[in-house]
């Protein structure tokens, strides 16, 4: 794999740390600002909605900027948002900082996925995408547990200042390791939007919302679930997050490897596993051993869906990938926002901290159903996974042939 993928993984590591670290620090943040746990959960919802809104906007605004420069600019925005959160005097300002940081998230992964896929041969695209997302998953093994430990012992503000420092390192890493990118062709908005007339693109994004969103019904309220329901000490949250992160790393790598071989079977298997484990967790949560088994399984099955879902969108929108790729990253976070919101509702209704997992199981099962519909539609129409924007313009394939530099670097 090209060394440039390491630079993308560095940026993904910083983003992954800030995205998930609030799960371990929710009680501390809620206590300092004097808000309830469900209200503090808006930090996850606000972040996710910021990704959803910012991903397509920044992808289009940056469509005429060289991709390397755009990635560096996005990480600069990430640094600013986390610094604002760290210094926030009131909860609303911290929420604003989370939204600012989140604007970088979707466009970074959307543009980064295109760059990663363009650096390797076509049969290795999903694996390359998974390598970039490895930074996101490793963040849950190293960044999130360390951030939680620092936040619980020295204050959550220090955690967010350190995350801003990670963003600075990511900018330096991209500058040093990512090869110079050619200036993209001027985006044709109509062409980019045409991809969304392809039913397979829409189905893939709906699967992203529901499938990956199911994971966040568990992660948003992870700390109170582990301490209040499962009976673990607060000090145990760190290593439980490490287990979850290890599952994420394994699932992401397996998903990337097998998505290049058999994309839909890999996706169906991961979604079925995710729905099953989420449905069982409310029962397992009252047994510590069962909980220790379930936590990494949720991470593995949840993140095994990421490479196949992102590759499917890129395949189905091959002639106009920038907006579709960024929008699918937004779809991941729309699912996160919905999951955090629904999880807060069932907790506020008095069903307990394990109840959000039932919501997550229902979301994952719905995504599985959509995946079966997508496969049936593909078989009926005779479409192929790499057919580009087939269906986006009356079923004709209009895949754009990129220039040699584009194939090499973007």
From TrEMBL:
Residue spans of biased composition, Gly residues class: 384-394
Superkingdom in the source lineage: Bacteria
Membrane topology classification: Multi-pass membrane protein
GO MF assignments: transmembrane transporter activity
Region: Disordered, residue numbers: 384-410
Major facilitator superfamily (MFS) profile domain: residues covered: 4-379
Keyword terms: Cell membrane, Membrane, Transmembrane, Transmembrane helix
Main location: membrane
Keyword Transmembrane: yes
Record-given protein name: MFS transporter
Species in which this protein is naturally found: Streptosporangium nondiastaticum
